[in-house]
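Z., the sequence and structure:
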Amino acid sequence: MPSTNDSSNGQSDSHSTLRPIGAAVGLAVAGFAVNVGGGFVGGVIAALTLGPEAVLNDSTLRFALGLPGQVLVFGFALGYLRWRSLDLPVSLPSRNQSLLVGASVVASVAAAFGLTFLREALSGGVTSTIGGMVSATPALALWIGVASVLLIAPAEELLFRGAVQGRLGEQFGTWPAVAGASTLFAGWHLLNFDGTALGTLLAAGVVGAVSLLWGYAYERTENFAVPVLTHGLYNLTLMAIAYAQLTA
């Protein structure tokens, strides 16, 4: 018959395992709510000021209205890191780290195109929110690329690489933390796609797959600047390709 101490220890181990998982999921959900909430408030103000038609018909305005939400995500993640006293090593990348950034961007773009081709073969076409806005206003692609480097990548990486991966890493170590953060990062982007259920899941899976590379780069270099630059330059590269295709 198990002793009371054995039972207590088992419950304690279970709680210590579930707590960081719950925290990671909670961070992703809260970050999503903060992001969407910021965009919603901005959209309501813009609709009352400029009229609903202006918001619905202007792709550049709709994109701009989402940026305050990214600022809030950055502040939310930074606040959590400071509250938990999680380490966030950041410095100017060294020569070798810069080479890793370049290689990771190339690998991420290649993986994204390869996996997207496979996804289309399995599930057909899937449309994306960003793709729709860029198709309507090709020049917006370049602005999205720049915003990705300056704001979107720092905010999302601070949440998922800094807060989520950092919290999971305290309990489970490197690779479970990288996999967990990337899975939640993929889930965060589910609503960016519109198509069949399978197609949407696979499209988000592509996002999660490239996120694994960024999480690995962070763990290998222990420099937060590396995944931020990789993520930002990856988005910028995709937007530059989209712009070139749309204006050819």
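The chain has a mean pLDDT of 91. Strands lie at 127-128, 193-194.

Let me know what you think.
H.
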